[in-house]
Every structure is written in structure tokens, then in C-alpha cells.
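Meet today's protein:

…
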Amino acid sequence: MLAIHCKKTETVDIKTPLLTYIRATYSDREADDAADDLEKVQTLRAEVAQAQSGTQPGVRDTLNKYFRYLNAIETRFPIGKEKNQAQVSFAWFDAFRPSRRVAQNNIHYEKAALLFNLGALASQQGLQSDRTSGDGLTAACKLFQEACGTFQLMREVESAKTESPRPLDISLECGTLLEKLMLTQAQECVYHKAVIDKKSPNVLARLAKQAGTMYEEVERLFNGAALANYFDKSWGQHVSLKASIYQVEELIQASRQHRLDDKVNNEIAVLKEAFARLQNTRRIAKATGQEMLDSVNKTQELVQALLAKAEKDNNSIYLMKVPAFADLPPTTGALLVKPVAPTNLEGTPEHLFSGLVPDNSARALSKYTDMVDDVIRRQLDRLAGATDTARIKLREWELPDTLQALDARTSAALPDALSRELQEIESIGGINHLKGILAEIGELRREVDDDLMAAQNSLDTDARADADARAKHGDKWRAQPAATAAKPYWDRIQQYRTAMQKAGDSDQGVLKRLADNEPAYAALSVESAAAQMPRLQAPMVTTGPEDPAAVVAGLRRNLDALQSLANERGGMEEALKELKNRDNVLQKVMATNPTNHDALFREEIKKYDSLVADVDKNLAAQEALLGAAGGANASFRAIFDVTGWRAACEAAAAGVRETVRQYRELLDHCSEGLRFYLGMSEVVRKAKQEAADFAFTRQVQRDELNQEIDRRTAQEDADKLAARMAAAGLRSGAAPPPPPTAYPAAPPPPAHAQHPQPHMQQHPGSYSQPAPPAHHGAPPPPPPVYAPAAAPAAPPPPPPHGHYSYAAPPPQPPQHGYAAPPPPPAGGYGQAPPPPPGGGYGQPPYGYPGYGQQAPPPPPPPQYGAPYGAPPQQPYPYGQPGQPYYQQ
């Protein structure tokens, strides 16, 4: 949510100019009596200048108190630039352009700036509330409503009384925007409170609908001519994103309500519309930040999951026909917030400047103000009512649309429902929207193909390494063959490629349909459709006494006169407000005896009589014109057969409706394809990673097996050499010294191992080189039990196949290291070692994820309805089999 920064100000000397005015107007004694009160005002003004944050304690109370002080000053001191006025210059900086400084000798400028800061502080406190709880949301909603009411008061009461040119931040346009923004955020708090309270989906949909509509209105105000380049662009992006988010949220909640009502077909239509709108939301979120984009992506995943479930249920259980989204009844918004007028602003401190103005004068001035407000309010209501009456009448008579249809083909010829559909298509981009989705599909397809190729390369690399090892070691290489271990991965890759082939055929069909109908889709706009409608023309033969041209001319004159009266009413509204702003009778009230105040007010109120008479004249003229226009319109419709023309337009719109239907159908297919490729991209990315992990694990295990084979080979060579040396020593009676390289170097044994104990056993999975003889005459040590001096036994059979299969993981073998020799057999030396356990090559080694268990198989490709996923009942509905993959 958004909070408003406070306006900053400079130090203003209020005391000196007001003391000067009191001395000049009253006397030195009154000036001395008012000095203490002026000092209070000056001190309070300095505190207001420091009030810039909603976290400061009592900050709003300080501003409220100063506003009441300004009320007292306003009724007693005329502040302005004239010599007979108190010349106090109030200086403030623009809240959104801090470098802009504006100073005015106008107390209403000071009050408008103060109201602006009061609204800003309320918005800051609302933003700081804990909006994760129900109580916090309630407090935030109340503060945002108070901020709305404060900005409304600033706009309606004080802004118009400031001098021109007035700063933009307190202008009428900016005040309206801030007022709407605060009220919209209050509505958003109501929605989140309803979510926490677990209200029904129908209630949530209505609240979300209202929030989205209000954000759209705020977005239009941001883009208005007066404020287009005033705010930072991030403000407009934020509001646009919120409007789009709540439009989608409305559809999500509506789909849940349809689910509760067992209307799965309506649920599918709503979720498809939500997915389509989410594409626009993602585009806006990309310009806002990664955090918002991640949030929108989560919402898209939710919509995809709900849509997939709904379609699955409908296809397997309900078997209901899915209607078009435009045929569903729209959701009605529920507005549960309103502006709350700020409290503690009315009235003035009774003790302040009590010696300057009597209380009855102040009460008399308030009475006159009420009289003026009553006159202005009644006249403005009459003017607004007249404008509404004229607009409603013209709408009923289809004017001026039917007159414009005489001159050119306009959108008035289109049926209302068709016009709305064409506007929606134009708003999402028309044919360019389809091309954009297809371009994104092409990019996703390339990514999927690249990931499949990367997975295949990982498996090919593993296969080549396995073949090289087998060629090098021969029968000693007992590892599971790569073709067996990687078979599940190859099967899955083939499954994905088959799905991609079918999707590519469907893509070609969609592209062909788009190419065949591209001119028709490009013409789906209000302007192009209106050009296909028949024109409203005068009859070839006139049977009545009236001339068609004269009827048209008379009707145009009536409409022009009505427009002139409407323009006059706008000028009257401004004149009434301007006169009220200039109507300052304070000096007269203070100079008049209280018993004559009523007579003074009756005299002063007469200045509004001329404007009231103008209003009466305008309304009477409009009533007469509406009567004449109604008769002229009846003649016009009869002569030009407007009813028949409407019927012809309805018939001519059939072709456009069919094109719209085909466009919607193709858009649904494109959205379906986009969802398919998004799902496929995810599962293929996981398959690529699993293939890379599989190849890496196999490489680590190959390295361990190579080291083990080299270690056994070296051990066998050492045993043979020791046996030959022992035999030579027995024959000659003396043992020759061993060559320096006969035995591998070994570190000296630790002190506690110099005399080995007879009962110490070696760990079955550990290996060590035998120590050389202590002297030449000593007999060599016996060969180790796991490496017989005779020829080594035949290599054990390879481990069984089945690793990385889709079946349940096999029972886990005893936990020995890869290729580690098993414990010595009971028969001792000379017996062939048993075959290694089943957990051989192909399982992860120690230290890697998933040791002792098989990695889960990669998920199957996503399944969606036609045209993606499983083929439909009629094969290849969008193209012929064998066509190439997607081409952009």
C-alpha cells in the first residue's frame, strides 16, 4: 500500500505581523493582551513544522490544535497583501516535488497545507498498522477512511480558496486522486479482513471486484492531463498492478464459488479468463520488481493448479459444456467503506484572542455562513439534476449517436455486447496478443529442447566413460552397464520428446489458423467493425409531409442548444463557488451591532439573487428544449426507420461475432499451449538436473572402482614378489636385501602398534600395504587373507540390473564402500571371494544425496486437454502429422 509524504515548511513569523495589525486596528492594550496568545500560536506553528512522521507521539493532535487556532485567527484577522490586512506569508514546499516552494499571504493556503499533512499522517499510520491480524486491518481501514475524509475536506473547503496558481499537491485534481486512493486502500483492508474471517467466496469476489474497480479509477486519475508527469512513475505502476491483481483475485474467488455450486463448467471458464488476465499482470509486475513478479507467478501457479483439477473433474465426472466467459453473469462489487470526516477540527479555543472579537460576532458569522452554504447547495443540486435529466433523455433517444450515423459509420451501429467484446479484445492487444503468446511458446519450446539435449548429453557422456572403462579393464570391470542403469532416463527423455512432437503438431495447426485468419483478426476493432455496418440513410421516397433534411436540421439545432445550456450550467457552478469564496463579511459583522446582524445577512445574501435567477432561466429553457427535441426525434426515427436500421446492423454483426468467437477459441488454445509449455519446461528442467546428478554419481563411483582395481593389482604384484623372495632365501640360506622399490613406502606405525596384538582384526572395508621384512634372514610375512598368493579367483558376476528404475527401490545391501572387498570368508585363504552385494555401481556413494536409496523418477510430462498433451479424438486437429516442430 501507499502512504503520503508530509509537506515541509519554513519558519513563519506570525506574531509580529498580527501584533502590528492589532496595534493599528485596535490599541496597544489589546496588543499586549494578545501577545501571550500569539506566542502560543507561534510555538505551536514551530511544532507543526517538525511534525513529519506518523510515528511521532501525539503528532495529529498537535496539527488538530493548530487548525483550531487558525480558525480563531481567520475570524479575527484579515490576512492578505493589502495595507489594511495582516501581512503574514506562509511558505510550504511541494510534497511530491520538494524543490518547489510556494508562499502565499492567505490563511486558507496554510489550512490547506495543514489538512494535507493531517491526511498524510493518517495514511502513514495506516501503513504502519499490523495488517496481518484482523484488529490491525480494522485499525488500518479506519485510518485510511480518515485520510480520505481529510483530503476531501481539503479539496472541497480550503483548496479552492487559495490563490492561483496554486501548488499541484493541494490542487483539486491531486486532492481528488489522494481521496480516491485512500478510500481504495481502505476497501483493500476490508477484503483482507474478510479473507482472515473466512468469508464465503461470493463475498470475497464482490469485495475484490470493488477494489479492482476503484484501483482502475485511481489509475485513470494518475494518467489525467493535470497529473500525468507529476508523480513518480512507480506510483502509477503500483496502482496499475493492484488493479490487475484484484481483477484476477475476483475471478479466483468466483471460481471457488462455482465449485461450491457444482458448476465446474463455469469454474473452468472463469479460471481460463483469470489465466489470460494474469499475463497482463505479469507484464506489469516485471516493471515493478522481482518480489511482485514472484508473487504473481505464485498466483499463476495456483490458477494453473485449480484449472487443471477442474478440467480433470469435468472430463472424468461432470462432462459439462464450458461456456464462454462473456456469457457468464458479471460479479457486482460491494463498497463497504466511505470517507470519514476528521474530528477535533471544528470550533476555536474560547480563551484565544478573547479580547478582540465577541463570541456573538463569531456565532453570527457562522450563521451567515450556513445561510450561504444552503443557497449554494440548493442551486448546485438543481444544476446537477438538470444535467442528469438531459443526459438520461438523450441516452433513451439514442442521441446524438443516430445523427452521427448519418454522416459516417460509427460505433453506435454496433450492438452493445459486441462493442464491449471488441473493446476488450483491443485492450489486450488483439492479434498482437496472440503473436506475443506464440512467441513466448516458441521461446519455451527452445528452452525445453535445449534442456532435453543437455540431459541426453549427460547420459551420452556417462555411456562413453563406461565403455572406455570396460575396454581398459575387461573382466575386472564389474560395474552395471550404462545402458541398463540409464534406461529409465532414456525412456523418460523419449516420452518427453514424443509429447513435444505432438505439441509441435498442434503448434503448427494453431499457426496455420492464425495465418489463414490474420486479416480477419487484425480487423477486430470497434472502428473496423463499425465500417462493416450499414449506414443510416434517408428513404428513397418520402411519403410523409415532413422533409427529412429539415427534421435532421431541427434536431441538430435542439441538441446544440441543449449543449449550450449545459456549458452555461458549468459556468454558473463556478460563479457560485467563486462568489462564495470572495464573500468575506467578517469585518462587517464585527463592525455591526449584534441586533442588526439579521438585517445585515439579508442584505448580503441578495448578492446571490442574480445567479439564482440565471439558474431558473437555464432550467426553464432546457425543459422547453427537451420537449421540442423529443418530438423531433420521434419524427426522425419514423422517417429514417431507425428500428429497421438497428435490425440490419444486428444481422451484419453476425460475421464479426463469428470472427470474435474464432479469436476467443484460438486465444484459449494459445493459453492452453502456454500452460502446457510452462509445465513441460518445469519437468524437463528437473529431468536435466537428475540426469546430470546421475552422471556425476556414476563418475565418482567409476573413480573409486578404478582406484580399487589399481590397489588390488598392486597388492597381487607385491604378494608374488614376496613369495619369490621367500623361496630364494630358503634355497640359498640367506635372504638378499629387497630392492628399494620392491615395496611401497608406508608411514611408520604408531607407538602402540609396534607389537601387533594377536587378536586385533582389520576392518573388512579397509586396506593397507604389508610392511617389509625386519631383516634379510627373517621369513616373509604370510600373504593377506583377502589376496591369495595363487592366481586370483574369477571375478564375481556383475550386480543385478534395475537401478534408477521407476519401481520401488530394491532392498539396500550391507553398507560397504563402493567396490570394497567383503569380510574374509569362513574358509580362509584360498577360497574365492563371494560376489559383491547388489548395491554396486549405479548407486550413489557415501556423502551424496540419496545414498542407500534410489532417486525418485522424474515426473511425467504435464497432461492438458486438446490441443496439447494427449491427442484428441480426431488426430492432429491443427495440422498433419510429420510437420516440423514449432517455427517462429
